[in-house]
Specification:
It contains eight helices and ten strands. It is an alpha/beta fold and 264 residues long. The protein folds into two domains: 141 residues, 3-Layer(aba) Sandwich (Cobalt-precorrin-4 Transmethylase, domain 1); 111 residues, Tetrapyrrole methylase, C-terminal domain (Methyltransferase, Cobalt-precorrin-4 Transmethylase, Domain 2, 2-Layer Sandwich). Strand 6, helix 6 and strand 7 form a beta-alpha-beta unit. Helix 3 crosses helix 4.
């Protein structure tokens, strides 16, 4: 039976890869890479650096496919994402069918942890559901960007007796999550943190932010402080970095202090 691994490789530092992931790499015959164009070539280079450091001497192949573009202007967000996933599944199905032989193991190396805001597992399940397709899927957990963010800022994600919630910039713009004082935000292309007062009803003066971009990479950026004091600095740093590199991966924690209560 063919097998396809989905291996979490951490937030960007090749040394963040786990012992379990290193052992999994050793048994892979074919690594599948979805390329996002020259602008994001650095992301492919980092994957190749992980293979150089951790793969070992056993021969392997790297098979590349073109990652379809997603229509980010579409008003129907869910439909646009479903269409993008379907086209991505087409690319993955073609690579697996063509390149992975009987009894061989293939792998996709994914940033952070495969279970958190990554579509690879769902896409492979879609591929597996197609007639005539057969392979096993196995996921190897990795260090997520939110774990790396907390470690780099030397903070805990939760506080005693309080829940925290992970969400997206798009969802934060719909309101502060009910019952949560600590909100981890990913996939925020519109700097939703700058408008907390306007659409969440939360006083920004009572919110701290812990922001990080390119976590674990040489270009890592970390900024933290009271939201009104550092929001403009984060916006400027984010814009400069994106213009310089052509892409950005960032996340942040919003921590409500409730009028000075900063128990951690």
């Amino acid at each position: 039976m063919r097998k396809v691994l989905v291996i979490g490789i951490g937030a960007g530092d090749p040394d963040q890869i786990t012992v379990q992931a290193v052992k999994a790499l050793a048994g892979v015959d074919v690594f599948f890479v979805l390329e996002k164009g020259e602008v994001k070539r650095e992301l492919v280079d980092l994957r190749e650096e992980i293979l150089r450091r951790h793969r070992g001497d056993r021969p392997y192949r790297v098979v590349r496919g073109r990652d379809p573009e997603r229509d980010r202007r579409a008003e129907a967000y869910a439909e646009a994402v479903h269409d993008w996933r379907r086209r991505r599944a087409d690319v993955c199905a073609e690579m697996i069918d063509r390149e992975l032989g009987p009894g061989q193991t293939g792998a996709f190396l994914v940033w952070g942890d495969p279970s958190l805001y990554d579509s690879t597992l769902a896409i492979l399940e879609d591929v597996l559901a197609r007639p005539g397709t057969a392979f096993e899927i196995e996921a190897i957990p990795g260090i997520s960007s939110i774990s790396a963010l907390a470690a780099r800022h030397r903070i805990g994600l939760n506080r005693v007796g309080r829940p925290f919630q992970v969400t997206t910039g798009r969802r934060l713009a719909e309101g502060w999550p009910e019952g949560a004082d600590d909100v981890l935000v990913m996939l925020d292309a519109s700097n939703a943190f700058t408008r907390v007062d306007a659409f969440t009803g939360v006083d920004a003066a009572d919110v701290e932010i812990f922001w990080g971009a390119y976590l674990g990479m040489p270009d890592e950026i970390l900024i933290s402080g009271r939201l009104p004091d550092v929001a403009a600095e984060i916006v400027a740093a984010r814009a400069e970095a994106r213009a310089r590199k052509g892409w950005i991966m960032d996340s942040y924690l919003l921590r409500r202090t409730r009028g000075g209560d900063d128990a951690r």
